[in-house]
Amino acid sequence: MTAPRFADGFTLALGGGGARGWAHVGVARALEERGLRPRRIVGTSMGAIIGAALAAGRSPDLIEAEAGRAQMHRLMRRRGRLALFDPGQVLEHIARELGDPNIEDLPTPLGLTAYDLVAGLPRLITSGRLVDALEVSIAVPLFFPPRRDADGVWCDAGPWEGIPVSLARAWDPSLPVIGVLADIPKPAFLASRPGAAFLHAASSRLGVGGGADRLTARRYLGLLTNRWADPVVHEPPDLLIAPRLGRMNALQFGRIAPAVAIGERDARLALATIAEEVTVHAG
């Protein structure tokens, strides 16, 4: 099997990971060095933030510089309802930096992922106000609040698909996918038979019923407990880049440069492997 011809276009699928997601910037820099620019970008959580900046035309160098000036840990001081933090200041900062655009007006097509805790289904958001979609995509359970509407109760899709490959392929099956995994995967035992049985039993005791307009702390915990038993989607990308970030904490938002450097290094290694495959097949 020959390597995909990424030079003809690809979708860049960026997973979450909190501060570990700064590695996406380094990956984007390594791709740019080789003249590889995505025709579409799909992002989850922190990957949604980095993906939005890239889709808006920001260079990796500029994203890294702006991230250092922003001091994200200072933007997450307020407590949120049903969560540790309120994302309001982060979203306001992004809106100011990018000009508060709609997703469909960005230079590069962008899709942001979300997950419905009621139905257990993902969604790819490709239109509407960018920061509204980001609010849903970065809603890491218990860290940032969920968002509810008439269709469901929405949060970060990362625990159910670490890299949004399936949604990227569904959006445009003709494009190969370069996927970047910076997050720590959800423990597999949660979706095992005994783990799932325990979680479903706990969910039943907490209660998951009620309309979209009713979201108490107890019901939210019930929905989360029920959904954490869902299996993780593992659809492999055409090229996987998994920066080796070790035990870097997802809340260490000040560690921008080390994460970017690791992402750039490991992306170069992955791209070198593809170049070798192409050479072998050509020979």
SSE layout and pairings?
Layout: E1 11-14, H1 23-33, E2 40-43, H2 46-55, H3 60-70, H4 88-98, E3 110-116, E4 121-125, H5 130-137, E5 147-149, E6 152-155, H6 165-171, E7 177-180, H7 193-206, H8 217-227, E8 239-241, H9 256-282
Parallel strand pairs: 1-2, 1-7, 2-3, 7-8
Antiparallel strand pairs: 3-4, 3-6, 5-6
Helix pairs in contact: 1-3, 1-9, 4-5, 7-8
Tell me what you see in this structure.
- The structure is a single chain.
- This protein is an alpha/beta fold and 283 residues long.
- It is 39% helix and 12% strand.
- It contains nine helices and eight strands.
- The protein has helices at residues 23-33, 46-55, 60-70, 88-98, 130-137, 165-171, 193-206, 217-227, 256-282; strands spanning 11-14, 40-43, 110-116, 121-125, 147-149, 152-155, 177-180, 239-241.
- Strands 1, 2, 3, 4, 5, 6, 7 and 8 form an eight-stranded mixed sheet that branches.
- The radius of gyration is 19 Å and the shape is globular.
